[in-house]
Design goal:
about 325 residues; Porin; 14-stranded antiparallel barrel
Length: about 325
């Protein structure tokens, strides 16, 4: 076990050696139900092909409030007959749309393919490595910035910029250790740190900055296997900014319904409910805003629909195939 965590630390230190500057990416509250969106190493962890589609609206009522849509799907690569190796390979796909409102000045659409390799390191324990690779369509429309009449926008670098550009390649690696009752994972987004001069103009030094995610969780049975408590945390690092973290506690009944609370550091308290109905999954999050944004906007909502493509297998069997601390 010590060697596994030592390897995780080495991997994180190598990635952290590159400077980062600001936060640019969307955030998700229900990261447990769609962890593959944060970490490509999670692709293929269950035995079934899994698909998720969802929508998030943050700071409802605020002008140009962030809105995010996403789709993920992933599956193990089938082994050839007669193969006795215990390691696994998996593929995945992620499509993500994020922007500042319907007619806001900034929006992006990313499409990424994933590959993951899972190496057994003990009975029911795996160390997995994954990578996302793809492209981003990035839009910036300065004319869509709305300011009071007494204000003005006079930036000679971006003045009049109304650009759409393809940013590539976009590379996001990840690593994860997991068992049948717990996991810890690290992932990085915007590894290359692509410049955004094609979007904002050649006079700017803006670039996609690196975002680091450290996520861990555990499933703990309460009295019997019917009930479980699932604590988890998602810590986000961006250089020159204080770390942001989500601390979540879910209560599970027979892997059919999860309810819980989440605290987001200096931002809010979120209520979460996830329902599993045979091969369908539905997740909903209500974000209650505690930050200064509450004076100019409402709260937030996140909705996720999921489907697993192995309806003939009961949920109890699915739970034994991967860590129940994430779905």
């Amino acid at each position: 076990m010590k060697s596994i965590f030592k390897l995780l630390n080495i991997f994180a230190l190598i990635i952290f050696s590159v400077n980062v500057f600001a936060q640019q990416l969307p955030q998700y509250s229900d990261y447990m139900i769609n962890y593959v969106a944060l970490n490509p190493a999670a692709a293929g962890t269950p035995g079934c092909m899994m698909a998720r589609i969802g929508y998030r609206s943050q700071w409802v009522g605020a002008a140009a409030a962030p809105q995010t849509g996403f789709f993920t799907v992933h599956k193990n690569i089938e082994k050839r007959k007669g193969t006795i190796r215990q390691d696994k390979h998996a593929w995945g796909l992620k499509i993500e749309s994020d922007g500042t409102g319907v007619n806001g000045p900034i929006s992006m659409l990313s499409i990424q393919g994933a590959y993951a390799y899972h190496k057994p390191v003990g009975t029911g324990k795996y160390l997995s490595f994954g990578i996302y690779a793809g492209i981003i369509q990035y839009d910036y429309k300065e004319n869509n910035i709305k300011l009071p009449e007494t204000s003005f926008l006079d930036d000679p670098v971006t003045a009049g910029a109304n650009n759409r550009a393809l940013i590539y390649p976009d590379i996001n690696p990840g690593i994860m250790y997991y068992s049948n009752n717990g996991y810890i994972g690290y992932s990085l987004k915007n590894l290359i740190g692509n410049r955004l001069s094609k979007v904002y103009g050649s006079g700017t030094s803006a670039r996609l900055v690196k975002h680091h995610y450290l996520t861990f969780g555990r499933s703990i049975d309460i009295g019997s296997t019917a009930f479980a408590i699932i604590p988890s945390a998602n810590i986000k690092f961006v250089s020159h900014f204080p770390p942001s973290f989500d601390i979540t506690c879910m209560f599970d009944y027979r892997n059919m319904i999860d309810v819980g609370l989440q605290y987001r550091y200096f931002d809010g308290i979120n209520t979460i409910i996830n329902l599993k109905l045979k091969n369908f999954t539905i997740g909903y999050v209500y974000d209650y805003n505690l930050s200064a944004m509450k004076y100019g906007s409402g709260n937030g909502h996140e909705l996720v629909f999921g489907y697993r493509f192995c309806v003939e297998e009961p949920i109890d069997k699915l739970q034994k195939e991967h860590c129940p601390a994430y779905r």
